[in-house]
Amino acid sequence: MDIVPQLIANSIIAGSIYTILALGFNLIFSTAKFIDMGYGVLTAVCGYGVFFLSSKLGFSLAFSIPVALLVSGLVSFSAYKLIYRPLRARKASGAILLIASLGVLFFLQAILAIIFTSQFQGLSSILTSNQTLELWGGTMTELQVITTGIALVLSLIVLIFLKGSRFGKAIIAISDDEEVSKIIGIDTDNLIGIVFFIGGIIGGLGGILIGLDTGIEPTMGLPWFLSAASAAIIGGIGNVYAGIAGAFFLAFVENFGIWKVAGEWRLTIVFVVLLVFLTWRPQGMFPR
Amino acid sequence: MEYLIHLGVLVSIYAILALSLNLVMGYTGIISLTHAAFFGFGAYTTAILSTRTNLNFFVTVLVGMLLTSVLSLLIGRVLSKFRGDFVALGSVAFNVIVWSILINGGDFTRGPLGIPGIPRPEIFGFSFSSNSSFLILAIACLLLVFFAARFIERSSFGRVLKAIREDEEALQVFGYRVVHYKLAVFVIGACMAAVAGSLYASYITFVDPSTFTVTESIFMISIIILGGLASNKGAVIGAVVLTLLPEALRFVGFPADIAAQTRQAVYGLMLILLMLYRPQGFVGEYKL
After folding, report:
1. Nearest to B23 by CA among B141, B208, B111, B150
2. Is B28 helix (H, G, I), strand (E, B) or coil?
3. Chain A residues with CB-CB distance to B264 below 8 A
4. What is the mean pLDDT of residues B70-77?
5. Looking at the complex, does the CB of residue B86 fall below 8 Å from at least one CB of chain A?
6. Which residues of B touch A86 (CB under 8 A)?
């Protein structure tokens, strides 16, 4: 069997997950203007939400997924209301916000580990069908095809929403200049809160898809956050569309990289790409 | 008594780490999440050299410092190109890369198995094999590092560092080569962390990569933020409090696994609360 089609398939799957996670990260970063390390832990929060509702309490997936997404959004929203908003209100530096978000990451992942133990949990047993599809010589499971579809649809929704709705335009205005947006009457405070809520849902969605595909553990947040942030930076941080390009670029480099090197160097490859971009092209792949 | 001595050694090692990170983060204002990498580099140098050759411990410390200074010079050189909070993100990447090298190093680092059987230090026929004699050695190192840090802080070099923290651009206007100062303090801090690593390796007589993760770097940051940035006294106080805290949790009667998680949750909560209510820590001078 030729390995290249499979590598392409794997890259598309990884790229889709990165796209989803980078979307949420970019939305939060472009409005709140700090590196929110706590964003990653929402993948675990939502993954465990689905795990708890469906495996422990026996609810159907159609019920547990929306509930878990809502929980993840609310966790993100309350982190903003309780922690980031007061800090931003007193003009705290990005460093303070970053360290506070590290605190959020640590706290939530420890709480998850206390409740659910730190063991790795597979969510895939919940899925009833697990058909695989052949695509030009590469194999993808049904779920992975769905993941790719979700990534595309979600990107489109966010795109249309940012361009087309008043709300989206207000978000773009905030990311350009928060002070001016305030002056012209945009309720920046509430809007950023909503962005955190949406970001939480998007991050949680990524977590569910990761969980269904491979599995969840309380410490999954940081590595996934780092990959998502890398994808966003490679594309061009704060730019939602470029994040998609960055996500797929990173996924391809990573998957072809581990083919040439070895699987255990996966994260190293991601970070070398990240460092290369931060050093020579901090503005990302596209000129601005 | 033996237990108290054990705690004393751990506190001394972490105090050295805190003092060295404080030079970088507290006095100069570089948020470095890669300090555990230097800690680990020193530990592995001592571990590898003293199990495979019969070099004296104190020679391995010097070799460790030398190698770590080369490594930190490289890392610092790259980090110095990043702007703002991306330094923090880039430093996480470096910590993960160094950790990957330790865990994937094959026979050289023995991967996740770690290196057992590291001998205790010996000098002029006297062996620090008992814990109480090791405590004296650890405290001696701590005092050395403490006074070195105090000397640096009070020298003209230290005043430049503090000025960099307050206003980097103004200092550049005055003709200071800011990058050189930052690199210098980064390398000095890394060397001190390497000493702590050598002590740790030889005290525990075993090293494995799990001790040198990003989590450990975050733990070090918690220490100096709790104690207070830009205060040597604060760094030591922070190390005492946070090293003894998990032991206290064990005494209250938490089972070992839950205690470890509770400790993480407490650190997370502590970081959040400190950022919200007391960003300068117990006795710090600087608020990020």
Report:
1. B150
2. coil
3. 106-107, 109-110, 113
4. 92
5. yes
6. 276
